[in-house]
Structure formats: structure tokens, C-alpha cells
Inverse folding.
């Protein structure tokens, strides 16, 4: 039976694990390999790893790091960052990663989504849309290259477009909520969710288990990407990797 997925999201910057706020002010929080080992022990549903430098620095994915992560991981892994070609997507899957996530490459060339889907299967490709509300408006726009380029494209329209191109999942990341731990921006997420019929994952804003439960109650079958809540603890934001126990997850799913 389908059920919600609670997904730790690990950001890689200069080879280390970091956490950001609104895609800026990165704070080093540890070693990514060690984090994978801890989430193994906690039996996480899935894991998302994003290299936030790769696209902006115009460099390819670091396959050696991905191989190390896949060897350590006992949970499904999704990787994003620097993927621009079908060959890179195939290489990443061959390295043991279950799912590739593309962003700017899909915006620049929507046809690459269908190309990758044909090669590795739609279940193995997700499109990430980093979105932000337009100033003095209720409209949202897609940004790329780690919040440095405004495409001025509508995320609702392009979620449908990428679904039609063969994406197996749409990942919506709300830039203004990133790392703020103040809850989800539900109105825009609901609009997008209502327009697609493939799996969707939402990111940006989780500050408590209450936020996770609210998302599950609203969307039922949803992926919930979580960053700060699973790496920080307490009001002083001490670094402590954590994840809900099986009992706590069962309570969230009810």
C-alpha cells in the first residue's frame, strides 16, 4: 500500500554536509557518509542528496562520492546536482543510486526528461522545481542555479509539462521557507498537487513533527523532504542527526 515518505535531505557543499536558510548562509554540519550511516540505523524511508555547487560551478556529478554513498546506504537514494545529460543519469544509476533529480537541465531542455525516462525508467527520474513568490504578487516563479537565476516560469504549468514529458516525480522546494522551520507554504503546494497525478515531494519549512503530520493529512500520499529538523536540535540549533522512530512514524501516518 502507498504511504507517505519522510525523506532526510542532505546538502553537499565543498564535499561537506551543510544546511542553508533561503538557499544562503550555509552552515557545516558534518560528513555526508557519516550522516548516511546514521540514517541507516534509524531506518529512514528514503534519502535525498543534493550537490548545491555542481550546477552553479558548471561541473559534473562526483561519481566517486556517489558510489561511496550508495555502498553505505540501505535505503533508496535520490541524487541531484550537475546532471545535464542522459549519459550522466545512466552513470549515476549504474553507481547504485535509485533516482536522479534534475532541475536547470529540464528547464533549459524539457526534452531531456523524456530522454532520461526512456533510458532509465520514469520511476528513476524526478524534476526539482525551486520556487519563490513574485514580489507584490501571489504568483510564483521557478528559480535555478541555487536561487541565482529567475526563469520567470510558472511552476504549476511546468509541473504538468514535466509530467507529460515522462517525469516519475515532481519535487517542489520553496526557497523562502528553506531552513526557516516555520511550516509549509500550503496554498501553492495544493495548487500544484491538484494538477498532477504522479508522486510529489515537498520541501522547505518543516520545523516539527506537527508540520509533517499536517502535510500527510492534507496530501495523504506525499514525499516530505526534511533538512534542518533532522540535523539540528533545540533552540540553539546544536548539530544532532535525528529521525522519527517507527512508532513516531506510525503516529504521524494515522
Amino acid at each position: 500500500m502507498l504511504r507517505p515518505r519522510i525523506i532526510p535531505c542532505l546538502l553537499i557543499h565543498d564535499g561537506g554536509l551543510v544546511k542553508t536558510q533561503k538557499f544562503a548562509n550555509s552552515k557545516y554540519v558534518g560528513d555526508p557518509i557519516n550522516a548516511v550511516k546514521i540514517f541507516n540505523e534509524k531506518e529512514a524511508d528514503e534519502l535525498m542528496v543534493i550537490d548545491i555547487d555542481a550546477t552553479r560551478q558548471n561541473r559534473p556529478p562526483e561519481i566517486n562520492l556517489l558510489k561511496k554513498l550508495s555502498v553505505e546506504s540501505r535505503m533508496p537514494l535520490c541524487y541531484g546536482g550537475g546532471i545535464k545529460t542522459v549519459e550522466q543519469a545512466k552513470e549515476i544509476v549504474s553507481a547504485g543510486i535509485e533516482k536522479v533529480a534534475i532541475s536547470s537541465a529540464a528547464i533549459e531542455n524539457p526534452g531531456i526528461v523524456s530522454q532520461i525516462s526512456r533510458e532509465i525508467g520514469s520511476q528513476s527520474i524526478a524534476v526539482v522545481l525551486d520556487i519563490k513568490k513574485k514580489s507584490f504578487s501571489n504568483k510564483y516563479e521557478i528559480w535555478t542555479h541555487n536561487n541565482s537565476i529567475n526563469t520567470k516560469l510558472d511552476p504549476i504549468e511546468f509541473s504538468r509539462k514535466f509530467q507529460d514529458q515522462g517525469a516519475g516525480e515532481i519535487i517542489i522546494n520553496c526557497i523562502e521557507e528553506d531552513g526557516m522551520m516555520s511550516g509549509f507554504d500550503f496554498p501553492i503546494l495544493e495548487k500544484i498537487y491538484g494538477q498532477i497525478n504522479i508522486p510529489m515531494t515537498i520541501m522547505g519549512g518543516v520545523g516539527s513533527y506537527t508540520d509533517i503530520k499536517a502535510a500527510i493529512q492534507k496530501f495523504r500520499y506525499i514525499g516530505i523532504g526534511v533538512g534542518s529538523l533532522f540535523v539540528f536540535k533545540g533552540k540553539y540549533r546544536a548539530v544532532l542527526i535525528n529521525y522519527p522512530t517507527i512508532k513516531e512514524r506510525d503516529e504521524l501516518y494515522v
In short: Residues 5-253 form a domain with the TIM Barrel fold (CATH 3.20.20.70). The chain has nine helices and 14 strands.
